[in-house]
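Ticket #4471: structure export looks truncated?
Reporter: QA, pipeline team
Priority: medium

Steps to reproduce: submit the single chain below to the structure queue and open the exported record.
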Amino acid sequence: MNIRKLIGEATAYDKKQQLEVKRPKSWLKSVSAFANGEGGTLVFGINDDDQVVGLADAESDAERISEEIKTKLDPIPAINLEFKEVKAKKLLRELYEYYNEHIDALPENYFNRIWGMDEPVNIVVCDYIAGMSDQYVVHKFEEIFVPRSWTYKE
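Actual output as written to the record:
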């Protein structure tokens, strides 16, 4: 699913910034309309400016969506819940978690901020990652997480 194809207003899809737990009717109407028509896609985590904002707890929201559909719609429509993660967010999240667990892998000046100045690890890691260019983020991710093939040296 290409998120860019889904952004906008049309009859084949709808977008919501977040799951409105207290107002499920606001999004259940879309599910019902799709079920009564030719189908469609409901995307959560897109704001009114067409920016991907994501969901704080997508798995919990998915469970809630499924439960609301099962209890409020009759007959229960066939649905397909999918998680789509913005790749850049995934790279940043993985790097953040890695450096939080491996502070010794940080450059010396960042490492010294933790041990020498008692700055919180998460703040130092955020500063380090925030200073990276897009290309450097990809480079560091590949360096840390992508296996390299073995080579034979004579």
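Status: closed, not a bug. The export was complete when the record was re-opened. Leaving a note from the reviewer for reference: The first strand starts at residue 13 and ends at 16.
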